[in-house]
Amino acid sequence: MNKCYIDGSIGQCGHSSRSADKAAASGTVMDLKKDFHMNSGAGDNSYARNSKIQGLIISKSQSERRKAAVAAYLGTGRPATMSVADLGCSSGPTALLAVEDIMVAVERACVELHGQPPEFNLLLNDLYGNDFNALFRSFPEFNSRRQGKGLCFVTGVPGTFYGRLFAAKSLHLVCSSSSLHWLSQMPEELQQKEGSPAACVNKGKVFISAGSPPCVAEAYRKQFHRDFTTFLRCRAEEIVRGGLMVLAFMSRKNREAALMEDRYIWGLLEDALNAMASEERIDSFDAPFYAPSMEELEEEIGGEGSFCIRSSDQFLVRWDDDNQYSGTGGEANVTARPVKHAVRMAKGVRAVAESMLRSHFGEGFGMDDLFCRYGGLLAQYYADSEAAVTNVVISLVRK
């Protein structure tokens, strides 16, 4: 294990990479549709190896997803072919969990109703850079688990869900997990235009922080409003009347964005970046991430008007939910616990965010150094704080 994770030391991580991003400083604003994707393959830094918490979120939202699946099937007249879209499916071991849940729930309902289960049209969506090849290679194992059950037909659908993806009135159910907290772009009001400084600059910061001016939280709120409204309008065109969506993603308990309880995730990464990157590159980067409150979601859904809320719930997901370090074990166990959480989280964040960080800060930027520093800072944080993040699962019915 890298020493920086064990003792939380930043100094063990190697040299600064400020010079590595000089060539990137004149680059254009990154295009997240092209530049953002989970780390591919099956290596140590891949999403496939570091998506445990996303799997836990899928597991914790399973009950709502299964209820929504049955409601969508019955509410749309028991279609002979049920079209299900998973938005932000990624690849790796979590990629097919949600759609498999849905099929199991509908098929069980059909047995109870003494009816014939539908065929399933599964539409798996993610951004263009997603490792669809790895996703497709997982189908033989998926099909073996489905042996003896109803037919399903699978299609990969590359593209952003902040736009139309499917034919009008063609979907019965949409699900999405751990995706909608990602915005379509860095907040528009914070982007620095060439030759003209942004209206408000989040100096030395990459997210909403205690030191950010109020306009930063407002810029994030506006970007979320634009994106989520677009998302709802596009899905309203694609989902049949009576069809459902079940969405799970990070949220916050506080209504005010400036009080977002999980902002330390970006705040500590910001500290690691400030030790390595140029001020110019940090000032021109704002994480395209927003965790809305339940109140915000209710207002956005009600304001757009195409869906009504069927159910909603907030829940915590812990980085130590496997309980590996939750039992007794004395002082050594207490010391090891925050280190274990930090290692897992640093690897998980790297698997998700590395592509956009590399796009912005440059190919030569030291990612090993960055996430070594980040892991050390996380270990210090988790020594005194809970290793948990807030999520929401919300079920919506197409009016």
UniProtKB/TrEMBL annotation:
<protein>
    <recommendedName>
        <fullName>Jasmonate O-methyltransferase</fullName>
    </recommendedName>
</protein>
<dbReference type="InterPro" id="IPR005299">
    <property type="entry name" value="MeTrfase_7"/>
</dbReference>
<dbReference type="Pfam" id="PF03492">
    <property type="entry name" value="Methyltransf_7"/>
</dbReference>
<keyword id="KW-0460">Magnesium</keyword>
<dbReference type="InterPro" id="IPR042086">
    <property type="entry name" value="MeTrfase_capping"/>
</dbReference>
<keyword id="KW-0479">Metal-binding</keyword>
<dbReference type="InterPro" id="IPR029063">
    <property type="entry name" value="SAM-dependent_MTases_sf"/>
</dbReference>
<dbReference type="GO" id="GO:0008168">
    <property type="term" value="F:methyltransferase activity"/>
</dbReference>
<dbReference type="GO" id="GO:0046872">
    <property type="term" value="F:metal ion binding"/>
</dbReference>
